[in-house]
Design brief:
Strand order of the largest sheet: 3-2-1-4-5-6-7-8
Number of strands: 8
Radius of gyration: 18 Å
CATH topology: Rossmann fold
Order of helices and strands: EHEHEHEHHEHEHHHHEEH
Oligomer: single chain
Number of domains: 1
CATH superfamily: NAD(P)-binding Rossmann-like Domain
Structural class: alpha/beta
Amino acid sequence: MAADSWHWRDMPAQTGRTVVVTGANSGIGFEASRAFASKGATVVMACRSTERANAAREELAADVDADRLDVVELDLADLDSVRSAAETIAAGYDGLDVLCNNAGVMAIPRSETADGFETQFGVNHLGHFALTGHLLEALRASADEARVVTHSSGVHERGEMHFDDLHGEEDYDRWDAYAQSKLANVLFAYELDRRLRAADATVTSVACHPGWAATNLQRRGPAQAGSRLRLWAVGLANRLFAQSAEGGALPLLYAATSPDVEGGDYVGPGGILNMRGAPEKQRSSARSYDREVARRLWDVSSELTGVTYDLPD
């Protein structure tokens, strides 16, 4: 469909399908959960805080059947939690149809995950790498063609993989670290799809980005840094330039459900500067198509997380 015409109401029916959305308690994940459930899917709201997730579930229940919304605790900053969440999901459903690797952190002061990874790289990439690996068999058990949708950002275009200092121990810049993690998201999505194709699997992998959407994501960095000025600036910029979280969820929803989307695609908003508007297929950065870098990232990610995929190179 034309870039200015697609809305989540144009999604195919999702009745009988099971969808996992990480970070489903707020922002884009919240709006995506509403859309999936409105179309008949069972939505697994995989969130770090079950208290906030259950509050979000209650709010969504005003619009959709609460029986379609399940909450699972998932802390992407803790590989033990990732493994436990995946086991719960795999045991609770007869196959998984869509995995939305959506949750993330942005431009925060340097910190480390429970496993000693720089938090942005650990949460945005490594946590989702591990989760996807643990859920691969559940995805392959889908009665239809399953999809893995990994949420990146337009900021990935400035990203580089610093394999000699992945965790920013020698030199840390919050935006460089964020850009690296978002480039890793796209590299992972493409490499996963190549390996799925080599295995003739009935699972495809795609990437997407939301453009500029007004969510809590932009506030976390300034809040953790204790910068009232940056918080004020973020709020003003969101009011002036950003689209809504509902609008920001459209590329994710399109990537997850459109019959026009194929493995290895990259979806983003088609409006001005690719910052807002209805979704379309786009090109990601030149670095994101570097297969050698993608293979190296895959090997490093498997080594760091201890998660291996039953897929050919």
